[in-house]
Amino acid sequence: MAEHRLRERWAEVVGDQIAAHAQPDQIRFRKLYLAVDSPAWMQELSFLKPTLLEKTNAALRQFRADFHIQEIVLKLGQPAPAPKQSADIPQKRRKQ
């Protein structure tokens, strides 16, 4: 649940510029794996890990006060597009 909410709010948490080049892939064993679209951005984000860790944990505390990320792992790959907000998804109409 926290992983899904983090994906939904990723651009808000880290900013649009970073979100355009890196997206959360998964959270496993208190590690956040980020898919990053280029080696240049991997290098930039490696310098920003402490800041990203702080921002991510602040966002996650809103969902689960007892949970925090201990490490960010960067991997080269095409970031998946951010999921649409649930309010943007139209509801299916029921047949009566």
Provide the descriptors you would attach to this structure in a database record.
single chain, 96 residues, alpha+beta, GMP Synthetase, Chain A, domain 3, three-stranded mixed sheet, 4 helices, 41% helix, 20% strand, globular, disordered C terminus
Count of DSSP-assigned helices: 4
Overall domain count: 1
- Average pLDDT: 85
Ranges where pLDDT stays below 50 over 5 or more residues in a row are 86-96
State the total count of DSSP E strands.
3
CATH class: Alpha Beta
Instruction: Enumerate the strands of the largest sheet in spatial order, edge to edge or round the barrel.
Output: 1-2-3
Strand content: 15-25%
- Give the N-terminus to C-terminus distance in angstroms: 32 Å
Oligomer: single chain
Write the CATH architecture name. 2-Layer Sandwich
Query: What class do helices, strands and sheet pairing give?
Result: alpha+beta
The third-level CATH topology is GMP Synthetase, Chain A, domain 3
Radius of gyration: 15 Å
For the sheet with most strands, the description reads:
3 strands, mixed
- Shape, principal axes of CA atoms: globular
- Specify the helix fraction band: 40-55%
Order of helices and strands: HHHEEHE
Task: Provide structural commentary.
The protein is α+β, with helices and mostly antiparallel strands and 96 residues long. The chain has one domain (2-79): GMP Synthetase, Chain A, domain 3 (2-Layer Sandwich), CATH 3.30.300. 41% of the residues lie in helices and 20% in strands. The chain has helices at residues 2-8, 10-14, 16-19, 39-61, and strands at 22-28, 31-36, 71-76. It has a 3-stranded mixed β-sheet with strand order 1-2-3. A hairpin with a 2-residue loop joins strand 1 and strand 2 (31-36). The chain is globular. It starts with a helix and ends in a 20-residue tail after the last strand.
